Amino acid sequence: MDFPELHDWNLDYREAVALQRELARRVVLKDEVPQPPVRVAGVDVSYEKHGDQFFAAVVVLSWPELQVIETASASARVDFPYIPGLLSFRELPVLLQAFAGLQAAPDLIMVDGQGIAHPRRFGIASHLGLWLDLPTIGCGKSRLCGEYGAPGAAKGDHAPLVHKDERIGTVLTTRSGVSPLFVSPGHKVSFRRAAELVLAAAVRYRLPEPTRQAHLYTNRLRLQARSA
């Protein structure tokens, strides 16, 4: 898979924050996901606690069968520090290396992280979507910012996630009786469609199948490297 470079990675904290604010203005919250999609990717990054070797995975599934049809991975040493709100500058370079190994672009990408549910409206899902010029959805397991009223406990129950009087996502119960996910548009998808697609992909587990498969894959890569 080929894609142009969006920007340089050699940035300090102030430059990274300024870039997020600039790029956030280019995020599209209009649906451009094919109906239905054919290839849906999930992505995740794994690393040892306090380690600097990162493992990234892209797992592409068929839709609506949710069967794995292609995978790609990459590993690299990362020196960008952990700074809340700047996750993409830490994880995206190695993730883009993994995307370069795909044979074909997916129609949609689900990301274990935030889309616009971010203080500067530019989480890792938005950053990835803008870089690849593809529809992306953030599927966060925890909240980065915003307030909400608790959704119901039944699958499909949901509530808006709001920050500074602006809607930034959906708090979505994807499996009855479990904690909800924080779903937000990354790029080229609306709030409603993002929630619908994540719910449809959460067949048996709390996580949607694309990001669940990517999480399992990155853990295998990390464990294999540890035992090598």
Biggest sheet statistics: 8 strands, mixed
* Overall number of strands: 8
Low-pLDDT sequence parts? none
* CATH topological fold name: archaeoglobus fulgidus dsm 4304 fold
Give the CATH level 1 class.
Alpha Beta
Tell me, rounded to a whole number, the average pLDDT: 96
**Secondary structure category:** alpha+beta
Order of helices and strands: HEEEHEHEEEEHH
Number of DSSP helices? Answer: 5
Number of domains: 1
The gross shape turns out to be globular
Strand content: 25-35%
Helical content, roughly?
Answer: 25-40%
Task: Assign the CATH superfamily.
Answer: archaeoglobus fulgidus dsm 4304 superfamily
What is the rounded Rg? 16 Å
| Terminal Cα span | 29 Å
Largest sheet, spatial ordering of strands: 3-2-1-4-5-8-7-6
CATH architecture: 2-Layer Sandwich
What would you note in describing this structure?
- The protein is built from 5 helices and 8 strands, in the order αβββαβαββββαα.
- With 228 residues, it is of the alpha+beta class.
- It has a single domain (13-227), classed as archaeoglobus fulgidus dsm 4304 fold.
- The protein is globular and about 45 Å long.
- It is 28% helix and 25% strand.
Keywords:
archaeoglobus fulgidus dsm 4304 fold, 228 residues
Question: What is this structure, in a nutshell?
Answer:
With 228 residues, this protein is α+β, with helices and mostly antiparallel strands.
